[in-house]
Prior knowledge:
The chain has one domain: DNA polymerase, domain 1 (Orthogonal Bundle), CATH 1.10.150.120. The protein contains 4 helices and 2 strands; from the N terminus they run βααααβ. The chain has helices at residues 12-19, 29-42, 48-55, 65-76; strands spanning 9-11, 83-85. The protein has a two-stranded antiparallel ribbon. Helix 1 crosses helix 4 and helix 2 packs across helix 3 (48-55).
Amino acid sequence: IEGLGDQDRLHALQAAWIEQGVPQCGYCQSGQIMSAAHLLASNPSPSRDDIVTAMTGNICRCGTYSRIIAAVESVAAGSRPDQQEGA
């Protein structure tokens, strides 16, 4: 997961995760964000159903599924730059 960004920039998914308030306990974060990165690498414009299907194998104990979907949708929609300064 650390390999998505670099020292000076967050990957768009990492920034969207923070912006949407996805992280809670952290149990599922690595699996969720890497699954999302794989989805967007293979399908840069997924539908909501595509996102739900791709993320199905990851269980979130805190139930932040709607935030996860919103974060992936925001990156897919291009509402964020590829990378964001900071962190």
